[in-house]
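Intended use. Records such as the Odorant receptor entry shown here are meant for training and evaluating sequence-to-structure methods. They are not intended to support clinical decisions.
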Amino acid sequence: MITPSNHTLSNQFTRAIHSLRCVMIYLGIWPGERHQNWYLLLWVFHSASLIYLTTGSVGGLIVLRHNANKIINNLGMSSPTILIVCKWFTFAWRKKLCKRLMHFMDDDWANLEKDTLINKSVPDSKRIIINFYKTTNFFVCTFIILASVATVNFLGQSFLSLNRRDDKPIKDNIFPMPYSWYPVNYDGLSYIIQFLVFAQISSMLSTFLATTAIDGFLVATILHLSSQLKILRLFVEGIVYEPCHPQNYKKKVREMVKRHQVLLRKCLFNFSVAATLQECYSLIALQHVMACVLALCFLECSFLMELQENEASGTSLLTFGLFAIGSLETAFIYCFAGDSLTNEGFAIGLAIYRCEWYSFTRSANLSLSIAMIRAQKPIEISAAQIFPLTLENFTVIVKAAASYLSTLRAYSMVEA
């Protein structure tokens, strides 16, 4: 009910975009003006859930500090959780930037419905935007499937642990998150333990929702910007000199330069879409890259150690495997979206070069030259201006994780 009243064009978005907005409302980070008290209450609830989940993992690290293999298992599960908590607080405090980005996205849909000059010259504008959004649909749907399977696995593992709690080896896994620890008495079937287990499961659901909202919104915004750049490129390719209407191309050149500035150029008192996106996600991307390397390393090591056990637990293998796949997928989708944005930015300069600029006036060519020079600077979403999110750098993340994994495996085998 809240979404249509704030954004009349929300039905123009695909299901994944609409779902992401609903998730952001549920998490209390919807950047609207209405029902702020409810949003604050939801934000406090999910923040407390994430902190509770993190404290259990950190407490487990302290208790298990003398067992190297269990510490590695705990780090494999806690590193993605700590990453999500850091990303959550960073993202939740940037409501103004999120609101600005959403305003850009809705404004583009409004201009599309008004049939403005650029969209009128590119009849397939709506289809182009929807095609870019399909990648967001794929990301959100696959992550929801992983989260659902992981939740069922956690519930099954917790149920088995509670029913066999007299077994000494199962006591470490009495909570869904392996080797979690809380200051409670484990002797006897306690309702407090059942409550803590239920709280941890609900906290994990908050974790899945938080990472879907943060990462999904980044992917949606980057791909939306990429679709606008592609529409602008097709518009530039269609600018021609018409002898019957010699002034038409000047109007199109002015419109192209104006749109190019809105998308890319950072002015003194006006931030472009690309600059706002970089400001919103620069620190989040840094946290994501650093934690993904560590999470992949620890999770893969834990998965290999479980495989080597004579009585390997199927639930543990599934847990570590799903978390590793989730970490790898989010790292890939970050780099894929950033790479598509960079490629579309470079294509603008090539489109300007290929248009009929030799038939235009000197003033029009000057404007085109400035836009082409600006397009030569790569449009990057980078981690704190250090690590650009590209497919080439995705291989760097995987190589770094593999290198740390080999070192960690050698250390764990020596300890064993």
